């Protein structure tokens, strides 16, 4: 997703700029083989982001990102 995002347009079809200051990637959550610990870390990080006034969209390569966000 990160690699493809550099090829995305910076504007909508109506020429509204969408990238400048709008999108932010917090990076990877450190992988933990203990799923309970990992899911807790993902949930905690997501909660901290959701406490801000920003719209949050969580994307990942598999369900290990979305499972703890139910």
Question: How does this structure look, described?
Answer:
The protein contains 3 helices and no strands. The protein has helices spanning 2-5, 35-50, 63-66. The longest helix has 16 residues, at 35-50. The two termini are 22 Å apart. Helix content is 34%, strand content 0%. The protein is mainly α and 70 residues long. It has one domain. The mean pLDDT is 81.
Gist of the model:
With 70 residues, the chain is mainly alpha-helical. The chain is built from 3 helices and no strands. It has one domain (2-69).
Name its key features:
70 residues; mainly alpha
Count of domains: 1
Q: Helices and strands, in N-to-C order?
A: HHH
Note the beta-strand portion. Answer: under 5%
Cα shape = elongated
- What are the low-pLDDT stretches, counting only 5+ consecutive residues below 50? none
**How many DSSP H or I helices?**
3
Number of strands: 0
Q: Distance between termini?
A: 22 Å
Rg from C-alpha positions?
15 Å
Which helices and strands appear, and what pairs or packs with what?
Elements: H1 2-5, H2 35-50, H3 63-66
